[in-house]
Specification:
Length: 188
Amino acid sequence: MPLGPLRYVAWAAAEKAYAVARRMPGAVVVAADTEVVRDRRIYGKPADRRQAAAFLRSLSGRRHQVYTAVHVVDGRSGRQAHGISRTDVTMRELSPRVIEAYVRTGEAQDKAGAYAIQGAGQRLVKSIRGPYDNVVGMPMRLLTRLLGECGIPLPLKKPDEPTVTQKSRKRSRRQPAAQPTAAGRLYR
């Protein structure tokens, strides 16, 4: 009996983690698996350009889910933690010409669902609901929680936040407000 999408993505992440943990005893291992799912069908990485185009035609104008399972194994303590993050993604109506042009970029080949939201594929997406970093493939809030469950210390400062100094505060007051980026417009 085949696994459903949630069980499959959890199984794939766990198998990746265990494979590395066996080769590196005592290491902290983080593994993830991301899958695109529509109507319980899993759209993995396309085998070729033809399949990539077929995936995009199937997703065109429709909402689908992106699931990323993360599995952490702490080889030092033996602790493990795992979880799944979900994001709903709605694709634009994609013409055959748009699909062909995107597939020709080569970006679709190594991506679940045949698109990369962090690349040129962002133009294919109408909206998302849920964590953006989940669609990219590593939901940081989930990862942080799982590391904490394993007792792995985390830095006090968030690594992706800029360091604010007096000098940068003064400069930021004089600069005009930033314009929204293309990625920012995805959250409608």
